[in-house]
Amino acid sequence: MVVPMYNTKGEEVGQVELRSDIFEVPINVPLMHQALVRQLANARLGTHKTKSRGEVNRTKAKWYRQKGTGRARHGSRNAPLFVGGGVAHGPKPRKYTKKMPRKMRRAALRSALSVKAMEDQIVVLDALEMEAPRTKEMLAVLRNLGLDQRVLILLPERNEPVERSVRNLPQVKTLRASYLNVRDLLGYDYVLMPLGALQVIESILG
To answer: Given this model, what pLDDT does residue 1 score?
Structure first.
């Protein structure tokens, strides 16, 4: 697949070939879903906790006498039946971690990239460099490229001026190409990548 390559002014300066073994593979929706569920599950802290009736700090004395009141017999105010008592079968700390083989994870990434390429949602730049953080300049670059929706910018390496220029743009996110994941690929409308980021992706998934 051959796509145009632009500069930051929105001018077409050449063409670049996207490898067919990465950007033109058969779409595997169940595999992408499995990778997304795994990523979301692994991001959960699992620190939720409720107190059982044995952990609630209330009086241990019998609430009222056993017989003669006309009410049901109770021996503790810590029972889940009462306000302020413990919680029956409540959540406890646990791990939500899911495992997935590396070959499957990379196959899911190839499938997600193929979806973006098929829908013409991948924009390739010759380079993306800024001397100093300037949100106004970054916004101008996106407008020159006709990107007015949610945009994921992939960087080949750490680039502090670019990363800081995007912080105040709620619809835009920067991500290093080596950290590419299914959640971000599917969560943004367009993927903007300099030529260097494309080379990183090809070195990992190729």
So the answer is: 85
Q: CA-to-CA distance for 97 and 174, rounded, in angstroms?
A: 26
Q: In what order do the strands lie in the sheet with 172-176?
A: 12-17, 2-6, 122-125, 190-194, 151-155, 172-176
198 in Cβ contact with 124 (< 8 Å): yes
Q: Which two tokens stand for residue 20?
A: 């067919």
State pLDDT tens for residues 95-136: 999 999 999 999 999 999 999 999 999 999 998 988 899 999
Residues 133-143 pLDDT 10s: 999 999 999 99
The answer to whether residues 144 and 10 touch, using CB atoms and an 8 Å cutoff, is yes
Say which CATH class 2-39+97-205 falls into.
Answer: alpha beta
> For residues 70 and 63, is the Cβ–Cβ distance under 8 A?
no
Q: Is the dihedral of CA 94, 99, 105, 111 positive or negative?
A: negative
The structural domains of the chain, with segments of one domain joined by +, span 2-39+97-205, 45-95
Burial class of residue 112, CB neighbours in 10 A (0-12, 13-18, 19+): buried
pLDDT at 148: 85
